[in-house]
Amino acid sequence: MQFRKPLLALLFTFGAAGAHAAAGHNHGGHAATPCADQEAPPAMHCALAPTGAFDAEGRLWLAWASGGHVYVNHSDDLGATFSEPRPVNRIPEKVAANGENRPKIALGPDGTLHVSWTQPLEKPYTGHIRYARSSDRGRSFSEPLTVNDHREVTSHRFDSLAVNDRGEVFIAWLDKRDRMAADAKGEPYIGAALYYTLSRDGGERFMANQKIADYSCECCRTAMTLDGDGLPVIAWRQVYGDHVRDHALVTFAAADTPRQPVRLSHDQWRIDACPHHGPALSQSAGVLHAAWFNNAPERHGLFYARSTDGGRTFSQALAFGDYEAAAAHPAVVAADSVVWLAWKEFDGQQTRLMLQYSLNSGETWNQPRAMATTAGDSDHPQLLRRGEHAFASWQTEQEGFRLLPLGEVRR
Question: What pTM value is reported for the model?
């Protein structure tokens, strides 16, 4: 495949960069919903920021927000129909529900449903990380617990979630407890920090929070996948030097032992603000795949890189998507040696959901194509794996939730 060279452009202001990253009709990262909050149980057109996962039997599960609740429902016919949604949190609370900060769902090896989300607090840009689980296939959920063990009112937000085949539950998030302590001492502290926690008993109890890195960006989503040993790999936007906001990655030597983080991207985007635009990760066949957005003046747009040595080093980053069409919010998923990328573009009238795939673990790629379009607001696209097959999920204002098969790929 031919990758276009990064375009030369003047440095955007944060406002322009934020608008560009939002891909036109995004406006907050989720599809607008016309339903009333008091509708119970809410219909799928009320779903804010639905996030999906397939279980071992091929059933699609969604977690999403509406009216102060996180809801979970499922589909046995690839999204054509859905079960009645069940509330995860019995008592209503604020729930973050936008493209960068949305409810998450993961399946344990015994079919347990694990759900995490961010609960915004009364003070702006603050929150707690919340978690609940269901051992009866979504009919009921445990009482939600707060995962962050620092309970002062500050930012614990932008969680990511993964569960391995041993039933170990990993949650990572951005946390400002250290900035709060530095401010109290009159000391400088840029951004936030990356923290994580681990449950070894399927979500009953979580270990004390552990810091992985200082000086993360404040409000870009974190991304998590599992390596071949079922250990987490986490990517996030990190602040380097004088407000250079590139990406970092950490792998683990054991479930409770993160390694030293490495730098993932080297785009040199210097901006004293948060771009609201986090990375994406997937792992398969011993290869780690990463995708991200940056808006540096001489190196901007969407990028992809791969690692064949467990995340220690990465290939030279390859640009994809049409920067002039506001290409943004990439997703990546891999199954064996087949890798898919999805993202959004805006042509001034419609938002296009774009797709590209590789048959050789990201070494070469086919030409991009538009999978779907919408004229209204839309969520960030997601890519889901169901065995050796992949699907794109997309919630739009006009069309609602769509699960799109990526088609047969001939190797």
Answer: 0.91
